[in-house]
Amino acid sequence: MQSIDIEALNQQIYLDSAFVENLNRETGQVIVGQQNMIERLMIGLLTKGHILLEGLPGLAKTMAIKTLSQAINAQFSRIQFTPDLLPADIIGTMIYNPSTHDFSVRKGPIFANFILADEINRAPAKVQSALLEAMQERQVTIGGTTYPLQEPFLVLATQNPIEQEGTYPLPEAQTDRFMLKVKIGYPSKEEEREIVRRNLNDDHFGEVKQVVQQKEILQARQSVRKVYMDEKIEKYIIDIVFATRAPQDYGLPNLEPLIQYGGSPRASINLALAAKAKAFLHRRGFVIPEDVRDICHDVLRHRLGLTYEAEAENITQEDIIDKVLNTVEVP
Fold it and tell me: What is the dihedral of CA 168, 171, 172, 176, to 10 degrees?
């Protein structure tokens, strides 16, 4: 009976995810390569999760989210974070009108579907906390009135490397609320050749067509929750997260002096959700261990705190996650 239900669910998910191919095809007409970043953006979109991107300039971060918003006919807003930015510059403020002698609300750029928070770590903590409130509560309070943010609502924050001057390291409580932290690399030689050719062509920026309705995205979010996850996969996810908290219990005593703190319960929740979304994007109605392993680095890398000993030995979060994945038994 269970296999029949799973087969029916698999067919349903296959139908519900039909728009994924159209979305990939439309974004591929503008974005060359960076399939990993596009997939992570879609995972965040399908799970109501926000994404923190870390990478050098010129790697199509802005273009990717703008193209995605155009493909689903959503409102796009870009906020450049600077040291002199104020919370009112993001959420909005009350404006006094001398002719009517009253105040009116002027909404800020946060009132959009897709928000690009560019160089988020260049703004002070009070500005980051204003953005965090909107991300977490999905609402904004201006002048004593609360305004809900329209769904779908996705924040893509880009971050400069911490060693650059003029940056404010994000607090652990804030980074933990980002579902994924994605590191962006350079394109391959073939991809960069295609990028050069497109930029030398006057009409390389073709008009992005709307191929998905917003209501399809909202419906797909419900379908993602229905993707089947076996109890063995659930145990696998819990074991991975607990191995970052108590590595000695999983045969990894050498990691204990390297980890200051492990993944929070949000790590387990987001790892399960992201694995379901990845299965959905591959048009499957069930999660397999490869889904968990593929998304694990993006979910955990910003949730692990390293000790001074780890930094002295040049051990990174990726090294810790690799050792955990190579040790925890795969179902």
Answer: -90
Tokens 């993001």 appear where?
90
List of residues 6+ apart from 323 with CB closer than 8 A: 252, 255
Only one residue has tokens 């925890």, namely 328
Q: With a cut of 50, say whether residue 2 has pLDDT above it.
A: no
**Please, what are the domains in the chain?**
2-202+210-217 (3.40.50.300), 228-327 (1.10.8.80)
- Position 270 scores a pLDDT of 93
Contact between 319 and 327 under an 8 Å Cβ cutoff? The reply is no
pLDDT digits (tens, 9 = 90+) for 32-71: 777 888 889 889 989 988 998 887 777 777 778 888 888 8
Look at residue 155 and tell me whether its pLDDT is greater than 70.
Answer: yes
Provide DSSP, 267-328: HHHHHHHHHHHHHHHTT-SB--HHHHHHHHHHHHTTT-EEPHHHHHTT--HHHHHHHHHHHS
The residues that bridge with 182 in the sheet, in sequence order, are 53
Per-position DSSP letters for 159-198, written without gaps between them: E--TTSTT--PPPHHHHTTSSEEEE--PPPHHHHHHHHHH
The answer to whether 138 and 153 have CB atoms below 8 angstroms apart is yes
User: pTM of the predicted model, to two decimals?
Assistant: 0.85
Q: Of the spans 140-144, 190-194, 245-249, which averages the highest pLDDT?
A: 245-249
Q: From CA 138, how far away is CA 154, in angstroms rounded?
A: 10
